[in-house]
Write a structure and sequence with these properties.
Layout lengths: L2 H13 L2 E2 H8 L3 H13 L7 E3 L8 E4 L13 H15 L2 H15 L10 H14 L3 E6 L5 E7 L3 H4 L6 H12 L2 E6 L8 E6 L3
Antiparallel strand pairs: 1-3, 2-3, 4-5, 5-7, 6-7
Helix pairs in contact: 2-3, 5-8, 6-8
């Protein structure tokens, strides 16, 4: 990202909200230049539309900018650390069967709003893969000469957690099962090393 826009994001992270004039003074840039960078950041979804901030003091209203929730991903976080700690606690507090049930229910909640998918198998696979990729997976599907369906996952959104907790792969399996209404058989799993996971899809008779 361009250095000036990165500076703007860091200032907003620190201050919460800011006006064009305040940014202009802090960055030693003209208001026109600041507005140009703000418009780019707004178009990328990182800052909000300018909002009127009224005060009891006389004068023109102030227009302030804030970060959107999307911008949070641009800053360092410890999501993996939190997830690992929670899964460690889960293992310490629940028997294995209940742990797996918890992961299955978590996966179902993740796809709760997906809606009805097409009945046609190819169209259903297209929709399932599209949803998975929206969730941060890098996945594709294929069909061999015998009409067997396969899903390939080359990047998992929680592969850092899977390095310590292989059971998180159950989430993938449940998501695929619920989306396809078929039984996925895991043929290869390398998610913990950032590799390729392969599932064969067995449709019900």
């Amino acid at each position: 990202m361009q250095d000036t826009r990165q500076q703007i994001l860091e200032i907003l992270k620190r201050r919460g909200e800011i006006t064009v004039q305040e940014l202009s003074r802090e960055l030693s840039l003209t208001s026109v230049t600041v507005r140009h960078h703000l418009e780019i950041l707004r178009s990328e979804g990182y800052i909000t539309e300018p909002e009127i901030h009224r005060s009891n003091r006389p004068g023109r209203p102030r227009y302030v900018y804030r970060l959107t929730s999307t911008a949070a991903d641009l800053f360092p976080n410890n999501y993996s650390g939190l997830a690992n700690a929670m899964l460690d606690t889960l293992k310490a507090c629940l028997p294995q069967e209940e742990q797996l049930n918890f992961l299955h229910e978590t996966a179902k909640r993740m796809i709760a709003d997906v809606g009805d998918l097409p009945e046609d198998r190819d169209a259903r696979m297209d929709s399932a893969i599209a949803f998975m990729n929206q969730q941060g997976f890098v996945a594709r599907w294929d069909k061999d000469e015998d009409g067997q369906y396969f899903i390939y996952v080359s990047s998992c959104p929680y592969h850092h957690v899977a390095q310590s907790h292989h059971e998180t792969c159950q989430i993938d399996e449940t998501i695929i099962r619920e989306l396809t209404h078929a039984d996925p058989e895991r043929l290869q799993t390398l998610a913990a090393r950032g590799g390729l996971c392969v599932y064969q899809i067995h449709w019900p008779e």
